[in-house]
Structure formats: C-alpha cells, structure tokens
Specification:
The protein is of the alpha+beta class and 315 residues long. It contains 8 helices and 10 strands. Keywords: Endonuclease, Hydrolase, Metal-binding, Nuclease. One of its GO terms (molecular function) is metal ion binding.
C-alpha cells in the first residue's frame, strides 16, 4: 500500500480535460476551522481517487470529492480496516472511541462510498483505492436505516445503474450538513460532547456530450431515527443564524432530490458550476420532515416514487 503522502486524490480534470471541475469552495469561517494536514498548504487530505477536508471543531468532513470511472470498476473483497489518518492530529478525528461508546447505535457511514473509488487499471489498484475509504476521516455516524437502506440505494444507483454499465466518468461531492443546531450525542466521548449530523447531501456531476457539465443534488436526513433510538439528548442546541427552522414552514415539498441552491444554503459551501438538470421553479419547498427518513424501508416502488432516480444521468 502506498504511503499517505503519495496519494493523488481527486482530479479536477477527471471528467474531461477541457471541462475542469474545481472543489467546493468553503466560507472563511469554515476555512479557518479546517484540521491541518501534514505536508499540505491547503489542508486537503488526498486518498486514492478521492479527497476531503475535515472540520477541526466537529471531527467530520465538510465535504469529500471523488472521481468514479465506471469503465475501470473492479470487484474486490471488503477489508473493513478502519484507522485514523496519521497526517491529521488524532484530537481532530473521531475513531473507535466514538463508534464503540455507550449508545453508539449507528454505523460508520462512508461519505465516499467504498465501491465508488474501487477502480483502476488492475484489481490491485482498485483494492488499494477501496481500502483508503476506511479512514475515520471519511466516516460520519449514520443510523443503519439510512446507511444501509435509502442512502445505500442512492449510491448503488449512481454506481451500478449509471456509471458502470455506461462506462461513465463522473464526480461526486458528498458530506454531512454541519449545523450549530445539530443534536448532542447522549454519551460524552473522551470528555467531550459530540454533535451528530442529521442531514447528508450528495451532488453528482457528469457530462452527456463532453461539452457541458451537468449536476443533480440529493438530501437525506436521520434526526427522527436518532431521537427515536434516544441516541441524542432531548434538548436542542440553541439555534443560530444558520438554523433551518424556515425550511419547516414550506408545503408541497420535493422529497430527496433538491435544488443545488438548497444544498449550498444549508452547507454554506459554494459548489462548482454546472448545468442544473433538476430545477424546481417554485421557492424552496423543502420540508425536512419529508427528507428525514423515519425508519422507512426502501422498496423498489419507493425507489421509483420518492424522487431520487437519476434518469437524467443516462448519456
């Protein structure tokens, strides 16, 4: 396995050399909160076929950026070799101490999916790439109902229904929404309170003609699942200007698939420009009550009806 310092990470020119795709842009306060990464000037942690930036205060990524080459996808065995990244101060990373704490009834939710970067010219390369997704920097606590069902269905659709069969090169940006109002885990970890993200976003960027980049965005949540399992404290963190109460007031919401502007408003990130395939001409009609999965089980019927089949990704 290559040394961490030799990993190349996300490539902006991956989809097409004449259609560069930069990383999401953080606001100044987020930039100031990045966990330092040894050997870098931008605190970008590169792995194989993906990169991420980590929030120093929260211990979770602001975003991860991955390149997916459907034509070079390889099937390899899963390792589950979770470890911390030695380039980043361990005080800024959550490891087994979080996922084995009392009441930690949640999965290590991959932000970059293992299989997404599981590609290369050889099986050995694909296996090495998949193995690098098992750094704790790439994990965020997710309830199994989200991580193993609806979120997994979306990820599998992107990879196995679109990218691999069509030999597509695509870029995927993913992350938790890190809000000051996120609920607090009931168990202190290493003497610290841990705020658990309740919303997760994903943006897929692709081209159908090698002339125009297109993008689609998705949002899913787990707050009700966390509260139902009594994993988080009942009292909420005091809301700030970044709170999202106003999203609760809207009606006629689209579920899961959302405008990119909605993701940008929630995350404070500026996502790379591209043609928006999905557009809702109404004011933001996102109801977090609908995005948040309340122990719903994903079924083929639900997969079709709930709004995240990416028909526009077909070239």
């Amino acid at each position: 396995m290559a040394n961490l310092e030799n990993y190349k990470g996300y490539s902006e020119a991956f989809i097409h050399p004449e259609l560069p795709l930069p990383l999401p842009r953080l606001q100044a306060e987020q930039q100031a909160d990045l966990a330092p990464v040894t050997g870098t000037t931008n605190n970008l942690a590169n792995y194989i076929n993906y990169s991420l930036v980590l929030s120093q205060s929260r211990g979770f990524p602001y975003f991860v950026a991955s390149n997916i080459d459907g034509g070079l996808f390889k099937k390899v065995s899963r390792t589950d070799n979770w470890r911390k990244d030695s380039r980043i101060d361990y005080a800024h990373q959550w490891g087994e101490e979080l996922y084995k704490a009392r009441k930690s009834d949640f999965d290590k939710g991959h932000m970059t999916k293992r299989e997404d970067v599981q590609w290369g010219q050889t099986t050995l390369e694909a296996r090495a790439a998949a193995d690098t997704t098992f750094y704790f920097t790439n994990a965020v606590p997710q309830r199994a109902e989200l991580n193993q069902q609806i979120w997994a269905d979306l990820e599998n659709y992107i990879l196995h229904t679109e990218s691999v069969p069509n030999n597509l090169r695509i870029a995927v940006f993913t992350g938790p929404v890190l809000r000051p109002s996120d609920p607090v885990f009931v168990t202190k970890v290493l003497g610290r309170e841990v705020q658990l993200p309740t919303l997760f976003w994903k943006v897929v960027i692709f081209t159908k003609d090698n002339q125009q980049l297109n993008r689609v965005g998705f949002l899913m949540g787990q707050e009700k699942l966390l509260r139902k399992a009594k994993i988080v404290k009942s009292e909420a963190v005091e809301a700030t200007a970044f709170a999202t109460e106003r999203f609760m007031e809207f009606e006629d919401a689209e579920t899961y698939q959302v405008n990119i502007a909605t993701i940008e408003e929630l995350t404070k990130l500026t996502l790379p420009p591209a043609q928006d395939v999905y557009l809702d001409s109404r004011p933001i009609k996102l109801v977090l009550e609908e995005v948040d999965i309340n122990a719903r089980v994903a079924t083929p019927k639900a997969f079709t009806e709930l709004g995240y089949r990416i028909s526009n990704l077909v070239v």
